Amino acid sequence: MDYYDDLDESDTELQYRHGISLAEEALRVFPEILAASVSLQRQITTAAEISPELLKKIALIIDTNLAAFYVARDGPRWMDLKLVEMKEAGLVYVYYTPPTDPDQIACFLSFLITYESGVKVLYLYEVHVLQQFQGKRLGARLLAGLHQLATDLQQNGGALYNPVGTALTVFSDNTKAFAWYKKEKYILSPGSPQDKRLRSGKLRKPEYYIMVRLNQARFT
Ligand SMILES: CC(C)(COP(=O)(O)OP(=O)(O)OC[C@H]1O[C@@H](n2cnc3c(N)ncnc32)[C@H](O)[C@@H]1OP(=O)(O)O)[C@@H](O)C(=O)NCCC(=O)NCCS
């Protein structure tokens, strides 16, 4: 792997190159085939290379799975913001397609290296499974790949790619995903918005939480 200068998130060109290096590492970690009802085939791309067609397909999955949450937070034009975020320099997309229909995306995740609460992490931007493929442990296997990648990078990635773990944002009302992440050893980041106890005694949840998971120690 080529290493460039240290992480500088204001340098878009550099961030794109980091994305390409990270994609090379992801190739080593995410399996080529994920067996579900069919054998899904791995594809990897980066924000620097993603085609408008692929971007649209991925956006449609996000829309199908989570539009209600996004509309509540960002209003009806939420997708405009999301499309900009999806092109963020440094992002890597790992997605899986059925062999008979390489145009269909069964599941995907996207991530980049960044800082959360002052420490370097592998940040999960999205993880989605198409509704008809949900409940087949595809999400679990994507998340396991992300955790493995973070651990490998910390052990072998050199000074630049040494995330202490993974991080993500989850809508507080997405109770299924929130419970799932907690089970996967995620905890609230010190930088996360927190629940507030109102004077009435009621608990007010923030719109979203930031969660972090430290790489698991090698010899435990
Ligand atoms: C969250 C998501 C990625 C999980 O992927 P998945 O492939 O359906 O989930 P898996 O089959 O890998 O199951 C993961 C765990 O969730 C549990 N689970 C699956 N479907 C569930 C449901 N409907 N309700 C509660 N738990 C459920 C499984 O039992 C499993 O638990 P286990 O690890 O103890 O076996 C998927 O449901 C999804 O795309 N949801 C919409 C998008 C989303 O919310 N993404 C996260 C944004 S932060």
UniProtKB/TrEMBL annotation:
Tagged with keyword DNA-binding: no
Domain (N-acetyltransferase): residue spans on this chain: 97-183
Cellular compartments per GO CC: cytoplasm; nucleus
Top-level taxon of the source organism: Eukaryota
Any Pfam family the entry gives: Acetyltransf_1
Gene3D superfamilies: 3.40.630.30
Keywords assigned: Acyltransferase, Cytoplasm, Nucleus, Transferase
Localisation: Cytoplasm; Nucleus
The EC number(s) this enzyme carries: 2.3.1.257
GO molecular function: histone H2A acetyltransferase activity; histone H4 acetyltransferase activity; protein N-terminal-serine acetyltransferase activity
Family according to the record: Belongs to the acetyltransferase family. NAA40 subfamily.
Name used for this protein in its record: N-alpha-acetyltransferase 40
Species: Babjeviella inositovora NRRL Y-12698
Taxonomic lineage from the root: Eukaryota, Fungi, Dikarya, Ascomycota, Saccharomycotina
